[in-house]
Amino acid sequence: MKQPDKFQLRTETKEGKCIVYVSGELDLEVATQMRAAMAPLVELTDRELTLNLRDLKYIDSTGIGILLSVLKARSAQNAPFTVEAIPPTIKKLFDMTGITPFFSQKIV
After folding, report:
1. How many CB atoms lie within 10 A of CB 12?
2. Which residues of the chain are modeled with pLDDT < 70?
3. 29 touches 59 (CB < 8 A)
4. Nearest CA-CA partner of 51 in 7, 20, 17
5. How far apart are the first and last CA of the chain?
6. Which of these, 26, 24, 78, 90, lies nearest to 49 by C-alpha position?
7. Cα(2)–Cα(10) distance, rounded to whole angstroms?
8. What is the structure's pLDDT at 57?
9. Among 16, 23, 33, 59, which residue has the fewest nearby CB atoms (within 10 Å)?
10. Hey, which residues does 26 pair with through a beta bridge?
11. SS3 labels along the chain
12. How far apart are CA 30 and CA 3, in angstroms?
């Protein structure tokens, strides 16, 4: 039986930019952890906030909801938010749900 990919976040701050590297599976089980990690970063309106999804293996509707709530908060603050390095399988899901145009994205 396949073990799920462990969810991990790593944050890097440099020159007016905060990059959050998301890996593993972003789903209901880790939603609280993701929200808690993102909350203080969303408030840093003096720098660009970027989510790098290169190592994200899976995202469910809860994970998508978190990304949309970050987008909504950053938009209300007039603060930059981008999603980069979106894996093809995740991009396909974003396309199917119609959210791709809302992210200023950089694709793998």
Report:
1. 11
2. 1-4, 104-108
3. no
4. 20
5. 29
6. 78
7. 24
8. 97
9. 16
10. 59
11. CCCCCCCEEEEEEECCEEEEEEEEEECHHHHHHHHHHHHHHHCCCCCEEEEEEEEEEEECHHHHHHHHHHHHHHHHCCCCEEEEEECHHHHHHHHHHCCHHHCEEEEC
12. 15
Is the CB of residue 86 less than 8 Å from the CB of residue 94? Answer: yes
How many other CB atoms sit within 10 Å of the CB of residue 107? 12
Would you state the pLDDT for residue 105? 54
Q: What is the pLDDT of residue 73?
A: 96
Count of Cβ atoms closer than 10 Å to residue 27 Cβ: 16
What is residue 15's predicted lDDT score, i.e. its pLDDT?
A: 87
CB burial class (10 A; 0-12, 13-18, 19+) of residue 50?
A: buried
One-letter identity of residue 41: L
Q: Please tell me the distance from the alpha carbon of residue 42 to that of residue 68, in angstroms, as a whole number.
A: 12
pLDDT score recorded for residue 103: 82
Cα distance between residue 25 and residue 42, in whole Å: 21
